[in-house]
Design a protein that fits this description.
With 434 residues, this protein is an alpha/beta fold. It is 36% helix and 22% strand. α8 packs across α10, α11 packs across α12 and α11 crosses α14.
Length: 434
């Protein structure tokens, strides 16, 4: 048998690991792991070869927060405010969403993420209307082939019951789902999508966070108001297992305290700038405070589904803000890779091209009129890459996109999403203006 299962040759590596130099090199994969990073020109015997000549080789991108269950209702809420979005997505659409709608949207969204070079996805699933809804989301993530973190949230059958000064407990079904996903190092793992003190009473937030600890889960939680970090810290509820989504309104001293506690953050720069009510992206303030942050799409209803767009949005907003902290192409690329892995609890497996980590690797075509000639590979990726230039995507060393063609159940996902949208148009016509 060959010593390696697969080798990636001919590409220019951006490793996102200070201990592994960037530049031309060969990646050798064995048993789903990056076994070695070898000098350029070495071509050890392997069962398969990925020729990355003319390409930039990167760790797979990490989306730290996406409401994947909304992927069949994309791109029509661009002009909505936060309240418009909440009314449409939760009050009107949420109760009409069935398990098959969740399955269709999650499969479509996960495949779209893979097509865009996102190999790790936090599926922020606050659509737990029934146990079948949870099962549909998990099964769709598994079918897609993505490294999925299923973040279990709350139901939308009566949305206001769980998010307006709520004291409701999360559904007991969370225990069953945890028992079904006990492996914290598998391809699909679990987290808890907690409501936070801005959506529920402080006692309910405490119960959510303590539930996550009891189940051995990370917590991802929308939190933006000043004072919220302080209140949770006083209760001893914040640590390195907690990720704050948005954090736009948190005071600077609170962010510094969060950094001291090891709390991470998830920034959604494009939607935070385009949806009134979400606040200004905290990218620069998080960096100044020392909080490790990742990037996220949030909802496809009103934003782009790829992290290249999010990187550009983060960079442009920070430069326009006039804040003194430098933010480089390398910095935002770190948010999309190693920072995202930290915020999802997958740093041991993903986020960099480090021997011993899982072989989640992408190749971006750089020998194109859009990128070539490449002077600064990191800047080229941040400023000019897009899903169409993602030539190869590997998860656990297995190809899910090859030669620019997405593998997997693409036709099935498109057909199911179309059927789901048709059902939802009939169930909630007022949302779609018909």
């Amino acid at each position: 048998m060959p010593p390696y299962d697969l080798v990636i040759i001919g590409g220019h590596l951006i490793t996102m690991d200070p201990a592994v130099p960037d530049g031309p090199a060969t990646i050798a994969v064995r048993d789903g792991l990056i076994a070695d990073v070898l000098p350029a020109g070495e071509r050890p015997e392997a069962a398969a070869v990925v020729d990355a000549t003319g390409g930039i080789v990167l760790p797979g991108l990490v989306d730290t927060h996406r409401h994947t269950w909304q992927s069949a209702t994309r791109h029509f809420g661009l002009d909505w405010s936060l309240m418009d979005y909440a009314g449409a997505a939760f009050v009107r659409l949420g109760p009409a969403i069935g398990p098959e709608d969740v399955r269709a949207a999650t499969l479509l969204g996960a495949l779209a993420a893979l097509d865009a070079g996102i190999t790790t996805l936090v599926d922020w699933a606050h659509i737990q209307n029934t146990p079948e809804h949870a099962d549909a989301a998990v099964e769709a993530l598994q079918e897609s082939g993505i490294r999925g973190v299923f973040a279990y949230g709350w139901p939308q059958t009566d949305p206001m019951r769980w998010v307006v000064d709520s004291d409701e407990p999360l559904p007991d079904d969370v225990h069953r789902v945890r028992a079904a996903l006990p492996d914290d190092h598998g391809r699909v793992t679990m987290a808890l999508a907690a409501r936070g003190p801005e959506l529920s009473r402080l006692e309910a937030t405490r119960r959510d966070l303590e539930l996550a600890r009891a189940l051995g889960l990370r917590t991802t939680m929308h939190l933006s108001n000043a004072g919220s970090v302080t209140r949770l810290d006083e209760l001893g509820l914040l640590d390195e297992t907690v990720t704050l989504v948005h954090a736009t309104g948190c005071a600077d001293d609170e962010l510094k305290r969060a950094a001291d506690l090891g709390v991470t953050a998830s920034v959604s720069p494009l939607i935070e700038q385009t949806m009134p009510g979400l606040g200004t992206p905290a990218t620069g303030r998080l960096k100044a405070a020392g909080v490790v942050a990742g990037l996220s799409v949030d909802t496809g209803i009103a934003t782009s589904g790829d992290l290249f767009a999010q990187m550009r949005a983060a960079l442009a907003q920070h430069r326009q803000s006039g804040r003194p902290e430098p933010l480089t192409a390398r910095d935002v690329l770190a948010m999309a890779t190693s920072g995202g892995a930290a915020a999802t609890g997958t740093s041991e497996r993903a986020g960099s091209l480090t021997p011993g980590k899982r072989a989640d690797v992408i190749v971006v075509a750089a020998d194109t009129v859009g990128l070539a000639p490449v002077v600064d590979p990191a800047a080229a990726v941040v400023l000019a890459a897009h899903p169409g230039l993602v030539r190869t995507v590997l998860v656990d060393g297995e190809p899910v996109k090859r030669d620019g063609v997405l593998l997997g159940p693409v036709r099935k996902a498109l057909d199911a999403a179309r059927d789901s949208l048709d059902r939802l148009r009939h169930a909630a016509p007022e949302v779609f203006g018909s």
